[in-house]
Amino acid sequence: MDEEGDRAGVENTTYAIGDVHGHRDELIEALAETGLLDGESWCGGTAQLWFLGDFFDRGPDGSGVLDLVMRLHEEAPEQGGAVHAVLGNHEILALGMHRFGGEEVPSEFGPRSFERSWRLNGGQETDQASLTDAHVEWLSTRPVLALTGDHLLMHSDTVEYFSWGESIKEINAGVAEVLAGDDISDWWECWRRMTTRYAFRGPHGRQVAEQMLKGLGGEQIVHGHSVIADQLGIQPDQVDAPYLYAEGKVLGIDGGLFVGGPCLIVELPWTAHRP
Ligand SMILES: [Mn+2]
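Above are the sequence and the manganese (II) ion SMILES. Below is the predicted complex in structure-token form.
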């Protein structure tokens, strides 16, 4: 009876989760608490779970996180559910490091390479060492944007996505083309653009968000990438909920796991006063 009750709680529900950054144990604990994981297997029935990228770096086991996500992506459909992911800037960084290593990126602004940026941004040797062709293939074919219900999902709080096109389909195809190619400058631009942030803050934040929603669809942007504690000016361990801002048009869900914040699993649509 209890089991059925728990299951009923997640059936047909959509969840989103932000930047895991190698924190596999915390991820598993949070998924189990939500009722999506039994041991390490999917038990979420028809629930839909979206990862908003940044599996790698700054934490101990990025490739373990990716393995889990890829396995759940296979398992969930057996129960009518789904596990999806959009790419974060740290996926571009990990793939760029894997592909180009220390190769210099042509630049007028001093020495640049994926290796250099990877080291500066919490790259883990063990993640690179365990990156398989299957990982690379799976990541390289993920989107950067997705629409689920009224929610426009993206990793980075940026409008730079429009550099690749004017629709979700065009933008995803544009990034996929870069990742399928060998042009280090295009790859670098992909990393650089997706590292930008805070496009929806400030007095014009709502307007910027509304323009993006008008162009790409959806009623609310849901993003990771920018740690909620930084946005609110509080300590990471004080965070217990996603951050709704830009007059309700934007929901930030990066709890800041790598700086000691919670692993937030956010039900969509999110309402502030859920018991
Ligand atoms: Mn990020």
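Residues 62-75 form the longest helix (14 residues).
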